């Protein structure tokens, strides 16, 4: 375990604090980085980069509660990973010229696909969080309607509600789910 970022810190208390953070949050940061990058070869370097970015924020980190500190550290790790993806994308862009049909247009951009997959994963996570905040009835309505493709009559039979009201109940459940997602995005934007 070669913690290069510790050599930057002059104060011994700050070194101990950052070493403790590293030991405490390393597994979580590694898991989060792998969920974005999918390459164990660079994850340790990215974690080191994240801690280098956190060094100027030591006083802020000391003042945060454990929940806020965890969020702050994980958001830092996420942004380090996204910066790495952007840097790799810029690095791998090549312009081929000479032929009338440029072969570069036929090569898939795997880095862009990785970033798109990560964004899609975050959207699914926010949808999942919103669904868990809904009532059980709303979750069941949306699940039966959109996952199981049941008819209104079948849904009414399962939930014990009048068939003529199912469409309205589904519309309200969708509206509440959309409000939860919108609220979550607004909270996320305020946190950053």
UniProtKB/TrEMBL annotation:
It comes from Paenibacillus cisolokensis. Residues 125-176 form the RNA polymerase sigma factor 70 region 4 type domain. Keywords: DNA-binding, Sigma factor, Transcription, Transcription regulation. Residues 21-91 form the RNA polymerase sigma-70 region domain. Belongs to the sigma-70 factor family. ECF subfamily. The keyword Transcription applies. Gene3D superfamilies: 1.10.1740.10, Winged helix-like DNA-binding domain superfamily/Winged helix DNA-binding domain. NCBIfam families: sigma70-ECF. This is RNA polymerase subunit sigma-54. The keyword Transcription regulation applies. It comes from the Bacteria. Pfam families: Sigma70_r2, Sigma70_r4_2.
């Amino acid at each position: 375990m070669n913690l290069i970022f510790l050599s930057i810190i002059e104060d011994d208390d700050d070194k101990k604090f950052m070493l403790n953070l590293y030991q405490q949050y390393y597994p979580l940061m590694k898991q989060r980085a792998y969920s974005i990058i999918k390459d164990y070869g660079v994850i340790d370097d990215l974690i080191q980069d994240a801690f280098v970015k956190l060094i100027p924020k030591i006083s802020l980190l000391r003042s945060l509660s454990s929940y806020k500190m965890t969020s702050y550290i994980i958001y830092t790790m996420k942004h380090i990973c996204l910066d790495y993806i952007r840097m790799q994308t810029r690095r791998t862009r090549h312009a081929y010229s000479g032929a009338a049909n440029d072969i570069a247009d036929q090569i898939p951009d795997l880095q862009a696909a990785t970033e798109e997959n990560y964004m899609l994963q975050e959207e699914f996570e926010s949808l999942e969080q919103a669904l868990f905040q809904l009532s059980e009835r709303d979750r069941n309505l949306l699940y039966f309607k959109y996952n199981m493709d049941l008819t209104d009559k079948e849904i009414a039979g399962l939930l014990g509600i009048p068939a003529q009201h199912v469409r309205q109940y589904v519309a309200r459940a969708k509206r509440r789910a959309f409000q939860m997602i919108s609220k979550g995005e607004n909270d996320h934007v305020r946190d950053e």
